[in-house]
Amino acid sequence: MPIISFGSQDIDLITGKKTMTIRKLWKNPLKVGDRLHCYWNLVSKEKKKIFEAKVTDVQLISFKDLKNNDKLAKEEGYENSQDMIREFKKMYINNIDDEDMFQIIHFEKLDIDEWEGEHIDEKAMVTQRADILFDSGKYDKSAMCYTAALKFDPNDIYLLNKKGDNLTRLGKFEEAIECYDKALEIDPDNEYIWNNKAIALLNFGDSEKALDANDKAMDLNSKNSVVLYWRGFILEVLGKFEEALDIYDDLLKIDNKNPEVWNARGNLLSEMEMPEEALDSYDKALELCFDEEDIDAEAQNRKGNALLDLGRFDEALDSYDMAIEIAKNNSQDPSYFILNKGVVLMELNRFQEATEAFTQVLAINPNNDDAKVLRDECLENL
After folding, report:
1. Which of 275, 352, 261, 367 is nearest to 315 (CA)?
2. Which of 179, 219, 352, 354 is in Cβ range 3.0-4.6 Å of 164 for a Cys bridge?
3. Integer Cα distance of 30 and 37 in angstroms
């Protein structure tokens, strides 16, 4: 019973697009008609049977002829032959010589009713794989898996909603809206799907229709904190600041321990040119981040902006320094925060330090025009 293990580069197996694999020649070579039992990551915790198949063709190729064959490498799921050979060297820990032979195995997936071994719930297996890929941010691959899962049941609301979420993250908003619409035809009373449609419409640039979709979600549950949060954001985009502020305040009556809502409220108040009130919201957001990992650089930067607007330059400097430190620790680009720090240093007439800050920005991004102009202005004041 030949067993083959596949890995993350083999997503096309699930969708049925891939029916070939390349393996080093076994002691008992495969032949046409052999049955394959195929697993996902056989030696890991994620081990999962994915299908059984029948071998339809086997071709032999030497490593010498294989190692520079980009066409075969791409069919096997790699970017190029170098990537494929790199993986082969991990798979086959002994050295691979030019004379070593490999099998190009073509197969046909069998209907589950024809399996000899354990039967599985294929839809559940594909859905689980899609969810894992989605949660790890591999949206291209998870989209393919959700599409494959929907072949088992085109009217599965969970899958239609998740595929919509996936397409939204890929920036394919029209396709996402189509998924949500199909799900809503089946379950028109699902507030979460109406809200997800609103988010897709907002990202697509249709804020009015986004508000209409959010209205439908609100009609179904006006106390849903997720729906309320996005309503505030949509109203803010539409320039309806007072209404948005009322929404954020309503949200905080439901849960005043949510740092994201306090941050959003702070951003809105900054937009409304109310820096003192914005600063109070930012401070509350940071106070509620009990885990230091939850305090991001952008939150510190926003607090610095509010302090800058209030003319509290020394405190603003502290906030920007913290933003820079957090960004560096998280391997983020700190240049925007360093630029803001430079602006505060100029306000404090510390032109030498400001010049150094703008020079740091230009070292990271030589095309930053703001840093160039501000550095030149500093040099004139030295």
Report:
1. 275
2. 179
3. 13
Length of the chain: 382
Q: What mean pLDDT is predicted for residues 300-306?
A: 86
Amino acid identity at 169: R
- Number of CB atoms found within 10 A of residue 148's CB: 23
Collapsed DSSP state (helix, strand, coil) of residue 313: helix
Q: What is the spatial distance between Cα 247 and Cα 230, in angstroms, rounded to a whole number?
A: 9
Write out the two tokens for 271. 């937009």
- The H-or-E segment that residue 224 falls in is none
Residue 210 is encoded by which pair of tokens? 């986004």
Looking at the whole model, is its pTM more than 0.85? no
Q: What is the CA radius of gyration of the chain?
A: 28
Helix (H) or strand (E) holding 22: strand 20-24
Residue carrying the six token digits 């607007």: 309
- Strands of the 101-109 sheet, one edge to the other: 3-6, 35-40, 48-62, 101-109, 20-24
**Is residue 380 helix, strand or coil?**
helix
The Cα 65–Cα 15 span in angstroms is: 29
Residue 232 predicted with pLDDT over 50: yes
Residue carrying the six token digits 């930012």: 282
Give the burial class of 283: count Cβ atoms within 10 A of its Cβ; 0-12 exposed, 13-18 middle, 19 or more buried. Answer: middle
- Per-residue model confidence as pLDDT tens digits over 43-55: 666 677 888 999 9
Q: CA geometry: angle at 106 spanning 90 and 17, to 5°?
A: 85
CA distance 42 to 91: 13
Q: Is 105 helix (H, G, I), strand (E, B) or coil?
A: strand
User: Please, what are the domains in the chain?
Assistant: 3-120 (2.30.130.30), 121-185 (1.25.40.10)
* The pLDDT value given to residue 43: 64
CA 327 to CA 331: how far, in whole Å?
6
